[in-house]
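Chapter summary example.
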Amino acid sequence: MFLENRLKNEFRKKADTIKSPKQLDQHIASLYHSHHDKSQRKDHSFSLKFPRYALFALVFVVLAGFGYATSKLLFETKSNKLNLEVRQDTTLKMKTITKDQVRSDIAMVKENLVPGEAALIYFADFENESHPFFKEMPGMIVSKPIKVRAYEQGLKMLDSMFYSYKKPIMKIGNYSFTYAFAGYPLDGGLTPDMINRLDKLKQEAKDTKKNVIWEKLDEIPQILPAITLTYKNDKENKIYLTLKKINENTKLETTIDEDSSFEKLMVHNKKAYFIKNTNQFLSSTGEYEEILWIEQSGKETIIYSIASDSLEVTKEDLLMMANNMD
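The structure predicted for these 326 residues follows.
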């Protein structure tokens, strides 16, 4: 624990010197529409600064420096600005709180949010877990993003962030575009200042003897700027297409638990990876699978992720989505 505490202290000191990213404008679609008419795609970049040392704590995702000795490297892939490692940790388990309880607490908080709002949640039970990941970061961010339901506006959101990208189509197989939003399919990401704010919630939990404490945030934090397009079929199965932009040299370390499996694939002549987790507590179904790959276009680096938390969605469904982008 000495090493973990030292890393935590060093991170907090460094976090005080950097700024967290600003939330993408809640009305990005309509604002970009008017801008597009005037500028005709002259400049699609945002004046957003994303911290090099930010922590992307989407539960099983951690940045360099916060990996644990119990994990083993499964594979590594690199691009111009990104170094992505995928590891597996058989000790990454929760024993003092059930995943169903976490899901229930998250759902309770979300019921108190309106579109465009987010909240920081502190879980006292996380600090009783044996794995240092939960002890050092006993919280997460949940959000209720604003959904854009017009396909054309969803593409304009992508246009506003990326100079060039593989364009999704409106209907793929029996899946149709339903809505787009700024952010990721699963909640959980913690920015450095959010980690610092957990101390206040921790003290409130001690004073009130409550296991779960939460507070609303002024904006929805994002570590990496991202846009997600959601597709559904007639059975209400969902597929999420997420594009994440890498603005600076970044090392991401994704750690999966022993219930997860992975497979190497090829998508658009690029190395791709299929990861399936059957015990993902941030997923409403407990299951989460995705295909991810990296594209480099000039100076722009994009992480593509095609994922689902629907039990009936297959790897072949995700591949169909991936192969129908050009």
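To summarize the output: The helical segments are 2-15, 28-39, 99-111, 132-136, 151-161, 192-208, 315-323.
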